[in-house]
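Look over this record as teaching material.
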Amino acid sequence: MKLLMLINAKSGLKNSKSNLLSVMDIFCRNGYDLSVYVTQKPNDAYEYLMKNRVKYDVICVFGGDGTMNEVSNALMKKEHKPLLGYFPSGTMNDFGSNFELGSDFKAIAERICEGNIREFDVGKFNDRYFNYVAAFGAMCDVPFTTNRDAKETLGNIAYILEGISKLPEIRQHKVKYSINGKEYRKNVLFGLIYSGNRVAGMELEDKKKSHIDDGLFNVLIIDYVPSFFDVPDLLSTILQQKKFIHRYHTDHITLEFEDDIVWTLDGEEAKVKNNKAEITITNKALRLLA
């Protein structure tokens, strides 16, 4: 079987790929015909797969959720969709958590060789695809504005520091959105449309009730509050889901904003035309060995 190891050497924490040779050894012992490609620039994984006509049986991604996003975008546009393997080496690795993938690359390689297949949903945001989250509003640009060297050295702390620096920039966004046959108009702080149970390192859903292969998005919309000091217990209130928070489950949502809005798809920046977004889901679109 032909297996491509697609490696983003600049992703994640330092020394996160120290076991690559051991992984190669495991694959070779299990009869795989290996090819290796190391990405050279942003979006290189996507471009490489779109140009490469070789039909691999398995593509193993070594990188963060952004690299996995590039691969999914390429495969969703191809008729031949090989099996995937994922070795998460990013800072957050939210996507991998849905499959209980840890940081032990040798253990992941052994699981891949066992051949257990798990299907997962893929979201579509206008003309782009995403694996687990589309987010907008307050501090949603933190994943892609945080300094890469800081992420490699500090890990999640780098995101926290970047988020603190952006607190003065928080503002409201006027949005009209349609979901499950109803239309809403709100002033919002931020919103998440996500599959699975974890975003930004936080578990937002019960693992027993929300799955990355159930054909539905979880939608979380947070109302704008003019000042954090107006509601002293704002954070705890939001987390307890008593006020300012709106939750939905759907396979389709459209949103239209009055002003320019920043979106992130799987931690990477997404630009939209006319501040409109249509988001749909394809149930069990791709297959992961895990």
Summary: The chain has two domains: 2-121, 129-285. Residues 129-285 form a domain with the Tumour Suppressor Smad4 fold (CATH 2.60.200.40). The first helix runs from residue 20 to 29. The first strand starts at residue 2 and ends at 7.
